[in-house]
Design goal:
- This protein is mostly helical.
- It has one domain (about 5-80).
- About 65% of the residues lie in helices and about 0% in strands.
- It contains 4 helices and no strands.
- Helix 1 crosses helix 2 and helix 1 runs parallel beside helix 3 (about 40-50).
- This is DUF6455 domain-containing protein.
- Pfam families: DUF6455.
Length: about 80
C-alpha cells in the first residue's frame, strides 16, 4: 500500500506553517486532504515546501487550503497567548 502523497503534502504544509496536527479535528484534516487532492499546484507545493519548510508563517497564495490553514494557525497562536 502506497502512502497518500496528498496526506504527506498536508502533513508537511501543516508543519511548515506551524500547525500542531494533534489539535486538528479529524474531519477538518480529512477535508483539507480531500481539497489537496483536487489541487492543480502539486509541483509548486512540493517546490515551496522544499524551499520554505524551515520558517513559513502562512500557506502560499496558490494553496487551495490557504485560508483554512492560516485561520487554524492563527487560532492556535491566539490560544497560546491566552494560556
Amino acid at each position: 500500500m502506497t502512502a497518500d502523497p496528498h496526506f504527506r503534502l498536508v502533513r508537511e504544509m501543516t508543519e511548515a506553517v506551524g500547525i500542531d496536527r494533534r489539535h486538528l479535528d479529524p474531519e477538518d484534516l480529512s477535508d483539507i486532504v480531500h481539497r489537496c487532492r483536487d489541487c492543480t499546484h502539486v509541483g509548486a507545493c512540493r517546490s515551496w515546501l522544499a524551499d520554505a519548510f524551515h520558517d513559513a508563517r502562512h500557506a502560499p497564495e496558490f494553496c487551495v487550503n490557504k485560508t483554512r490553514l492560516d485561520r487554524i494557525r492563527d487560532a492556535e497562536i491566539a490560544a497560546t497567548l491566552t494560556e
